[in-house]
UniProtKB/TrEMBL annotation:
InterPro entries: MethylDNA_cys_MeTrfase_AS, MethylDNA_cys_MeTrfase_DNA-bd, MethylDNA_cys_MeTrfase_DNAb, MethylG_MeTrfase_N, MGMT, MGMT_N_sf, WH-like_DNA-bd_sf. It comes from Hominiventricola filiformis. This is Methylated-DNA--protein-cysteine methyltransferase. One of its GO terms (biological process) is DNA alkylation repair. GO terms for molecular function: methylated-DNA-[protein]-cysteine S-methyltransferase activity.
């Protein structure tokens, strides 16, 4: 069963989704791939995971780095899961390029090369935006590229974190 709720952020409304294990989705209304991983059967209900996610978002949007992460349960291939694990390790206020993530993936998978485009596909299909910080991934030249929520929101999130590009 999927449980859903909403959150009114300074950047627009967010849809939150969770199952009994953890958060499964966090999308800006109308973003690319909006609620694509959400099952048809869902219930509008407050759960401990959704409450903890709201608490995390309240701290985050107040301009502070939350000291905890709500339980996460993203659905995706092993490759996507591995990329998302790297995203979770990008520190608050810092960025990584798609190429840097590709090199880290190659190292972890013990291969000589990993495609930055493949990494970009995994980053773009992250269903738990903000908490799995895909907004911290930038182009090789420092450009703000490829954010499903929109480049304006990516810029605002990085500004909130006082990220220097």
């Amino acid at each position: 069963m999927a449980y859903i709720g909403t959150y009114h952020s300074p950047l627009g409304n967010l849809l939150l989704a969770a199952d009994d294990t953890g958060l499964t989705g966090l999308w800006f209304e109308g973003q690319k791939y909006f609620a694509r991983t959400l099952p048809e059967e869902q219930l509008l209900k407050e759960t401990p995971v959704l409450a903890e996610t709201r608490h995390w978002l309240n701290i985050y949007f107040s301009g502070k780095e939350p000291a905890f992460t709500p339980p996460l349960h993203p659905a995706g291939s092993a490759f996507r899961q591995a990329v998302w694990q790297i995203l979770l390790q990008i520190p608050y206020g810092k960025t990584m390029t798609y190429g840097e993530i590709a090199r880290e993936m190659a190292k972890r998978q013990q291969v000589s090369h990993m495609s930055a485009q493949a990494v970009g596909g995994a980053v773009g299909h992250n269903a738990i935006s903000i908490i799995i910080p895909c907004h911290r991934v930038i182009g090789a030249n420092g450009s703000l590229t490829g954010y499903a929520g929109g480049i304006d929101k990516k810029a605002a999130l990085l500004e909130l974190e006082r990220t220097v590009l």
